[in-house]
Design brief:
Elements (H helix, E strand, L loop, with lengths): L1 E6 L3 H10 L1 E4 L2 E4 L3 H14 L4 E7 L6 E7 L3 E6 L2 E6 L6
Antiparallel strand pairs: 1-3, 1-4, 2-3, 4-5, 6-7
Length: about 100
């Protein structure tokens, strides 16, 4: 199982993701691709993200049962805590 959530990405990237995955909500894509296709899809996201951001979550054989990657500007950043991938928040920017 693979889930990609995008925010503020160009329409061309949304259309590209819809080729391989089902868009179940605006900016939320779900599918069950192979590892090779998952890596290819993430390359497409990295190439087309522009000013947006995205997170990709997939099922894997880890303690938590999943792993994830992020790209783009976002307050949430992945951190490794004793072998477990968790999410930390960056301080809020002043306007």
């Amino acid at each position: 199982m693979l889930v990609i959530v995008t925010e503020n990405v160009p329409p061309r990237l949304r259309g590209r993701l819809a080729v391989w995955l089902v868009e179940v909500r605006a900016g939320v894509y779900v599918g069950n691709p192979s590892k090779r296709l998952r890596e290819f899809i993430w390359e497409q996201v990295a190439d087309g993200i522009d000013e947006g951001n995205a997170v990709m979550v997939w099922r894997t054989n880890t303690e938590s049962g999943y792993d994830f990657e992020t790209i783009g500007r976002n307050r949430r950043i992945p951190v490794d805590f004793d072998g477990l991938r968790l999410v930390s928040f960056l301080p809020q920017e002043d306007p």
